[in-house]
Design brief:
The structure holds two protein chains of two kinds. By secondary structure, chain A is α+β, with helices and mostly antiparallel strands. Chain A is built from 27 helices and 23 strands. In chain A, α2 crosses α3 and α23 runs parallel beside α26. The relative contact order of chain A is 0.10. By secondary structure, chain B is an alpha+beta fold. Chain B is 63% helix and 14% strand. Chain B is built from four helices and three strands; from the N terminus they run αβααββα. A three-stranded antiparallel beta sheet of chain B has the order 1-3-2. In chain B, α1 packs across α3. The radius of gyration of chain B is 17 Å and the shape is elongated. Classes of the chains: A alpha+beta, B alpha+beta.
């Protein structure tokens, strides 16, 4: 306690620089005066009395130093002094300071933005009280990765029998879209089905009204109550408080609005479309048209979240839950229970999507790190050049006794201050870059979190040290005498290897970024054009009559009418229903066999399947390679037909002749009527899967989703332009059927491969920035070198060298640096390619054209950057240069 | 900072506290002479050693200081013990006595005393 008080006083004194020098002087004066008096009393003459008193006092300088050291904290005092000196110098050279800060701000800001992205995807907690104790409770399975939900009855059992949680709630946050009636007509929104204790577990307070009571979640179908999200209430109901107590229709069922959720709460699963509506599990039926008894064991599961009890740690809970699951399995052998338990904190986005996003985040982080390295190398070059210009000053400081350590510290303080300022300026760049990233991660809450700012500052401080350390050591090298004697020229000029090396590194890293950017540009281009048709001319709308309770006959009549009316629309070439958008990869999970093959079906060849209607390939704009595509001959009751892709045809009929053969796909025996090319978007790491296209109109009618389609419409011109007309036409047939996800196939590709798009945009931007920085660095270094070698060049000219010789000297040196960097960068790119091959579609990671394009541009710009100092060297007048010495 | 100085400063702090306890408020010069006197002239106290100790004790709150008139109509900074300082003195005196008693026992020990 005493210690603390002492240090606090001293720390404050150091920081406020309130060194009480008056008091110090008074004490000295008083002491000497009192001692002099004592000496006088002893009978000494006044002069002698004072002399002796001063002698006895000892060194005033030592006294002052001891006294001051006790007043403040010496180390801190020195540091603050360094900071003041550094600040003064930065202030005096504003051009240098601004350039260095801006360069570092660029690198630090981009790094910060990517850190923010990683934080939101992997680490961000829910905006609720004591979020660290809120966990997902999931079961794991041998056959599939990730964590899975429980059936509702299993959840109830766990809730009643576990002690590890103070509360256990169930939710389905990814229920099918809820069509909610609003003053401006029905809108499809993301809704969640939750147990009554969901909001109490999260410890949220309603913005208005109240949350569900336990009683409202007891009897299925009785209490139709709903809670709206704040954003939904604000945008669709204009924050009207009278909405509370009124009725809104959700999927046709009238619900009473009882509350509004707090402002920043969008549900517990981040990274998805935010939840706009919550309804109790007892009303599950209204949200799920696909299962008649959604709360039974037979239907799909619910997600479970828990709040850990006070005394339980996250490591203790799984044992208890595993035990309860074993009991459940004994009591209900038919229960579809997994074999393990996964309890993890609610952090970031969904686990499988975390895994899916990890590669692109890693690539962006790596790229931002490279930009930071380029920026650091650039500023290190600036500091180095300035250190050389200050050689004389530093030599004098060393000569009059400054220790090398102290000087190095002073220079490091300066670079750290530059980096700290860069970090502050960089947060503006981070905010901008986050805005860019938000376009690619639309449902991610990406913002400047205090933790990110703090982390960014830590990165900035280490960047400052890393940037400044080499220049600090180099410019304080103790070859004093030489530096002072020779001044700014001649033998003492430190070798420029470090400076040139920094440029080589910058060029190499920029080439790496540009090369990767080139590959991604090509990849993104191939996503759109690699299949041989124009995805921007294909419109897709999703039609789900099953959501409004159609019978299958009515739904199919509807679907047929949609096709007829659309095909009659001017500008439409063809329309066809399909089970999935063309951009989806059909997972090979269906066994396919030739008739007569009686081997074990579990080891059969696995193919993907898709349901498509007649003229589907025409609608896409793809030609059938062999045979024909479905047409009106293939009726509901006619012989079952299929179209296979080349990968599948090659497997079964390597010598061709697939058309007309019969094949068993799952339970169906189908006749192959056509072969199409492998219409798939596969990355450099994937192979085209075998796919069997089955006829939409021949599918199993008992399946409720058989009613629904994603209708593909081929358009003569731009699909996006015709979409309103398409929606109007479809809406006129039956206004009750929700039309969702309208968009062109091109836009869908953009959304589905947003990681490629984000990586492409970012890498090209980063590469461009790296290019700019390294070219500025190159120019600066050469200009500086020419300035340093003025006398040498003058002598060469005076002795008869031609101007071209002199220019060539500079040009050759510059180009050597650039080519060395380009070589290193291309090599690095070839090595790095496989690391992001999963983002490369239709382009090899070693595609020479894509890799070389960036460096070629760089070499042209480099030639320009080099020619400026080279010209200056050529234009030198030897007489003037030599006289100036 | 050398270790011996720390020890010395700690001892000196105790001497300062005790002197102020016995004699009441004193200025720095007076304090130095008194401590030298009490120690029997074996100790010469350099102001460069004494004043930082005074400053530290004041920062710790053990003593307080203010300017006041001295003899001969001069003014000087007088140091006095605070309540916290008195407590500290008591605690340190006890600790010191214990240490010296222990050390004394060690010095007094003879071979035949040990079992």
């Amino acid at each position: 306690m005493r210690r603390l008080r002492q240090w606090l006083t001293r720390l404050t004194a150091s920081i406020t620089r309130r060194h009480d020098d008056t008091r110090l002087r008074e004490e000295i004066d008083d002491y000497v005066a009192l001692d002099t008096e004592a000496n006088l009393r002893r009978g000494l003459p006044p002069a002698e009395a004072r002399r002796r008193a001063l002698l006895a006092f000892g060194s005033i300088a030592t006294f002052t130093e001891n006294y001051r050291d006790q007043q403040g904290v010496p180390a801190l005092d020195h540091l603050l002094q360094d900071v003041r000196i550094a600040f003064r110098r930065m202030w005096k050279t504003p051009g240098f300071t601004i350039a260095a800060i801006a360069t570092l701000a660029l690198g630090l800001g981009l790094t910060n933005a990517v850190m923010g992205l990683a934080y939101s995807i992997f680490l961000k907690r829910l905006p609720v009280d004591d979020a660290a104790r809120v966990v997902f409770v999931e079961q794991t399975r041998i056959d599939r990765p990730g964590g899975w939900g429980y059936s509702y009855p299993d959840y109830v059992y766990l809730r009643e029998h576990t002690r590890s949680f103070s509360e256990l709630a169930a939710h389905n946050s990814t229920a099918p879209p809820m069509i909610v009636g609003t003053p401006a007509g029905p809108v499809g929104v993301s809704g969640a089905v939750v147990t009554a204790n969901y909001f109490t577990l999260l410890r949220l307070t309603p913005r208005a009204g109240r949350f569900f009571s336990a009683d409202e979640d007891r009897i299925p179908g009785r209490d139709a109550v709903a809670i709206l999200s704040y954003d939904f209430w604000r945008t669709r109901f204009a924050e009207d408080p009278h909405v509370l107590g009124t009725t809104v229709r959700i999927n046709g069922t009238p619900f009473t609005v009882i509350g509004i959720a707090p402002e920043h709460f969008h549900g517990i699963v981040a990274g998805l479309e935010p939840n706009a509506v919550w309804i109790p599990t007892a009303m599950y039926g209204a949200a799920s048209p696909y299962c008649d008894a959604p709360l039974s064991r037979a239907c799909g599961g619910v997600g479970v979240i828990g709040r850990l009890a006070e005394a339980t740690s996250i490591d203790q809970a799984p044992a208890e839950v595993t035990g309860r699951m074993r009991q459940l399995k004994e009591a209900y052998p038919e229960a579809n229970l997994g074999n393990g338990v996964l309890i993890r904190p609610v952090r970031g986005i969904r686990m499988l999507e975390q895994a899916a996003n990890a590669p692109v985040v890693a690539l962006l982080a790596g790229a931002a790190g490279l930009v930071l390295l380029v920026a650091s190398a650039n500023v290190a070059g600036l500091l180095l050049a300035r250190g050389l210009r200050r050689r004389k000053e530093i030599a004098v400081r060393l000569a009059i006794g400054a220790s090398r350590g102290r000087l190095i510290r002073l220079l490091l303080v300066e670079s750290v201050m530059l980096a700290a300022a860069g970090s502050v300026a960089g947060s503006l760049i981070a905010v901008w870059a986050m805005g860019v990233l938000r376009a690619y991660f639309p449902n991610l809450e990406l913002s400047m979190d205090p933790w990110i700012a703090l982390m960014g500052f830590a990165v900035a401080l280490s960047t400052g040290v890393a940037t400044g350390i080499a220049p600090a050591f180099q410019s304080t090298r103790p070859d004093l005498a030489l530096a002072m004697k020779e001044g700014s020229s001649g033998a003492a000029r430190p070798r420029s290897i470090v400076r040139d090396g920094l440029i080589v590194v910058q060029v190499a890293l920029s080439v790496l970024l540009l090369g990767a950017g080139g590959l991604l540009v090509r990849s993104f281009f191939m996503l759109h054009r690699g299949q041989g048709f124009d995805p921007d001319r294909v419109a897709i709308v999703r039609l789900r009559p099953s959501l409004v309770g159609f019978t299958i006959d009515r739904a199919w009549t509807y679907q047929r009418e949609v096709i007829e009316r659309l095909e009659a629309l001017p500008g439409v070439l063809a329309a066809s229903p399909a089970s999935a958008p063309a951009s989806w990869r059909a997972q090979p999970v269906t066994p396919a066999r030739l008739p007569g093959d009686s081997s074990d079906p579990t080891h059969a060849y696995q193919v993907g399947t898709a349901l498509v209607g007649p003229r589907y390939f025409k609608a896409l704009g793809v030609d059938v390679v062999e045979g024909r595509e479905f047409d009106n001959r293939d009726s509901m009751n006619g012989p079952r037909v299929a179209i296979v892709n080349e990968a599948l045809a090659r497997h079964f009929w390597p010598n061709g002749g697939a058309v007309g053969r019969v094949i068993a796909v799952g339970p169906d025996r189908v006749e192959v009527v056509g072969v199409v090319k492998d219409l798939q978007w596969t990355s450099a790491l994937q192979q085209a899967a075998p796919v069997a296209y089955l006829n939409f109109w021949q599918q199993d009618r008992s399946n409720r989703v058989a009613q629904d389609s994603r209708t593909h419409i081929s358009v003569a011109a731009d699909a996006a332009g015709l979409l309103p007309e398409i929606q109007r036409t479809v809406g006129a047939i039956d206004p009750d059927v929700p039309i969702s996800e309208p968009g062109s196939l091109g836009a869908r590709l953009d959304a589905e491969f947003k990681d490629v798009r984000a990586a492409r945009t970012m890498l090209v931007t980063f590469g461009g920035l790296g290019l700019g920085l390294s070219m500025i660095g190159l120019y600066g270094a050469l200009a500086f070198a020419v300035g340093e070698r003025t006398r040498e060049i003058a002598i060469r000219l005076a002795l008869g060298a031609s101007r071209a010789d002199v220019g060539g000297l500079v040009f050759r040196r510059g180009m050597a640096i650039v080519l060395l960097g380009v070589f290193g960068g291309v090599a690095a790119c070839v090595i790095a390619g496989p690391f992001f091959a999963h983002l490369l579609y239709g382009v090899s990671p070693r595609d020479p054209l894509a890799i070389i394009a960036g460096p070629a541009v760089l070499i042209v710009i480099a030639a320009l950057a080099i020619s400026l100092p080279a010209r200056r060297a050529m234009k030198q007048d030897p007489i003037i240069a030599l006289r100036a010495e | 900072m050398k270790k011996s100085t720390d020890v010395h400063q700690g001892t000196l702090a105790l001497m300062v506290l005790k002197t102020l306890d016995v004699l009441g408020p004193l200025h720095g010069y007076g304090l130095a002479r008194r401590i030298e006197h009490i120690s029997g002239g074996g100790l010469t106290l350099n102001p460069g050693t004494l004043y930082p100790v005074l400053l530290r004790l004041e920062q710790e709150g053990a003593i307080a200081s203010e300017r006041g008139p001295s003899k001969n109509n001069r003014s000087a900074r007088f140091y006095r013990l605070t309540r916290a300082g008195r407590k500290q003195l008591e605690a340190e005196t006890r600790a010191w006595e214990q240490t010296t008693a222990q050390i004394a026992r060690f010095f007094a020990v003879k071979a035949e005393d040990l079992p």
